[in-house]
Amino acid sequence: MLRHRAISLVMLFAAAPLFAQQPPTNIEDRVKQLEQRLDTLNQQMTAIRQELDALKSGAPAAVTPADAEDLTKVEVAQAPAAPAAAPSIGDVTTINNPSDPGASKVFNPDTSVIGNFLGKVGQPNPYEFGSDDVRRPMNLDEAEVAFEAFIDPFAKGKFFLSVTKDGIDLEEGYAQFVTLPFGLTAKAGKFKALFGKDNTWHAHVRPWVDQPLVIHNFFGDEGFNDDGISVSKAISNPWNTYIEATGEVFEGGVANVFERRGLNDLVYNAHVKAFRDISENNNIEVGTSYARGTLNDVHNQFAGIDVTYRWKPPQRGLYNSFIGRFEAIENRRGDANDTLRGFYASADYQLSRRLFTGVRLDSADRFAAGATPTDRGVSATLTFWPSEFSQLRGQLRRMRYGDVGRSVTELLLQLQFSIGAHGAHTF
Amino acid sequence: MKRIILLLASLALAANTFAADKLKIVTTTEDLASLTREVGGDRVEVNAIGKGYQDPHFIEPKPSFLLLLKNADLLEVVGLELEIGWLPPLLDQSRNNNIRPGGPGYLDVSQGVEILDRPTGAVNRSMGDVHPSGNPHYWLDPANGVRIAIQIRNRLAQLRPADAAYFDQRLNAFKLRINEANKRWLAALAPYKGAKIVTYHSSWPNFTRHFGLDVVGFVEPKPGIPPSPSHTLELINLMKEQKVRVILMEPYFDQKTPEFIAQKTGAKVVVMYPSVGGAPGIDDYLKVFDRDVADLLKALK
């Protein structure tokens, strides 16, 4: 019995410290604890205030201590989660949802404007390149205004307006269907025909100030650009080569190139391209195009081939690269009962991160009433990119027109500048 | 003999079936590819578009990448507009609806990581090539590496629920390995906590924060703008004043200006590799830190 009492007493003594660790029931103890917590918070606030003062005074911020956390316990960073259990209806209170009246603006299209400012010095050119064939020593030739956005889950809408002193022209405006079945993509609207390479480029993508002669002489200032439908398909093959075939139908409204004589007199264009990486640093693209329509009540046909070779080693690609281009077009004009031919060949080398140089050779027949004189030219360019969004280019151009007895030498200067969000271009 | 032929034929068939059964994954960088291999093991076939020694902002959208994207089950991107200059046209031509943003095969891992340098005020291009949603070089923090791996595990388990336990097991093994490695890296750089450094581009905020380094300036005057003479002179003065001993740069930038600055200030130029595949031997995510920590230590000593 005595033994039992002794054990009970020992147990009571042993339990006493445990009770002492329980939350204080006594008011004084609780006040003491709260005071201690207040002191700790005060100390933390003083430390934060000191850090803020240091930041405001421009003193270097203290380096955050290295993150020595246990990486096995790292979790994905997430937005605060909603309460796990729904409160009872009796506890429901109002919710302060953030109000953002401008939220729907996220659906506004990406908008950009690209200015093309030109300057020209040198001998008078009888066949001035430009929208109005009038020579101007200095001229904001064009502002390209672009709008791009998803229309719905199936298509993107793209509009490119050409704003000049003469007015606003819809350069391109189309819906691009990117989620069609059978591996197809399609475009419908007004767009540049996929004929060769140069014809598909906007002015700011072209590595020269002007168009090559063959494009200018065969398709005019605006190029082969019409209202129509385009369908493309990637062709599977065993050669590790990207092959794409495109078929296009146009209304037939390209001045002096295709002029429709009846409702069903459409223009057809076909293009096949093959792209292959030769190595990590080199690649080659070969394309062939054929277009057929009507001009002056007879057939007008174009056949073309384009080859692009690129060298751009990934590690040095920011500073050095090379692109060689060749494009040849043959034009069988029914109204002239003649075949016109033309080509350009160019080489562009990147000298440093922001400096590029290049040369271009041109040769192209030109349809003139009763004759098809051959024009020839050579150009050298030097391009400086202050940033990704502006470029300054000089092009020294020497042309010899077949029906003009002398050569014309000019220096073309160009400043292109872009504001806004302009979508990346297809390779 | 007949049996052996039959056995070999069925083995070949099984191997083929297994190979065809692998999830085809395309990533925009080799870091994401490496983390995907860590989690996906032999159940995934991974290809990266960008190379580790290439500036990930400026990759050419070559049609050859379309061959990869066309058949991909999953596309993993760094996000925060790192790939904005080249990925959208590839996606438009990919003819693969699954891997478009919002699709089950599109994973933007920036959604679940810790992001630094989020601009707080108005952003415009006078500030250079700023990323309005924050600095996209976040994978250079090992904790974010784990966060990326977790997101990859979650998506792989969604796409292939039958292999979820396998992905879990591999993720846990990776966590243990990176945790051990992280202790080693932190211990190695601990004596240099607070060391002042200069970096070429703003690619290293997560790395320098993790290891307690203090970035006092950049060789680029503004993000994406090549160094100018006036900025270079200012930087030289700042480095002399603050006794900066290290200039940290990526392998794809020109060393001329950093070397010039180093010559004038007595600092050392350290070419650090921000990505897997940046140099021979850096063939997985952990080796990026192994190499960078070792090279940085040499320069700081």
DSSP strand (E) fraction of chain A? over 45%
Instruction: Estimate the helix proportion of chain B, in percent.
Output: 40-55%
What is the class of the largest domain in chain B in the CATH system? Alpha Beta
Q: List the strand order in the largest sheet of chain B.
A: 2-1-3-4
Any low-confidence stretches of chain B, pLDDT <50, length ≥5? 11-19
- Count of strand segments of chain B: 8
The largest sheet of chain B, given as strand count, sense and whether it forms a barrel, is: 4 strands, parallel
- Average of per-residue pLDDT values of chain B: 92
Outline the structure in words.
The complex is a heterodimer of chains A (about 425) and B (about 300). Chain A has helices at about 1-20, 25-55, 215-220, and strands spanning about 110-120, 140-150, 155-165, 165-175, 185-190, 225-235, 240-250, 255, 260, 265-275, 280-295, 300-310, 320-335, 340-350, 355-365, 375-385, 390-400, 405-420. Chain A is elongated and about 115 Å long. In chain A, strands 1-2-3-4-5-6-7-10-11-12-13-14-15-16-17-18 form a 16-stranded antiparallel barrel. Chain A has a two-stranded antiparallel sheet with strand order 8-9. With about 425 residues, chain A is mainly beta. In chain A, a hairpin with a 2-residue loop joins strand 3 (about 155-165) and strand 4. Mean pLDDT of chain A is about 85; it is low at about 10-25 and about 60-65. With about 300 residues, chain B is of the alpha/beta class. Chain B has helices at about 1-20, 30-40, 65-70, 85-95, 140-160, 165-190, 205-210, 230-240, 255-265, 285-300; strands at about 25, 45-50, 75, 105-110, 195-200, 215-220, 245-250, 270. Chain B has a four-stranded parallel sheet with strand order 2-1-3-4, with helices on one face. The radius of gyration of chain B is 22 Å and the shape is globular. Chain B starts with a helix and ends with a helix.
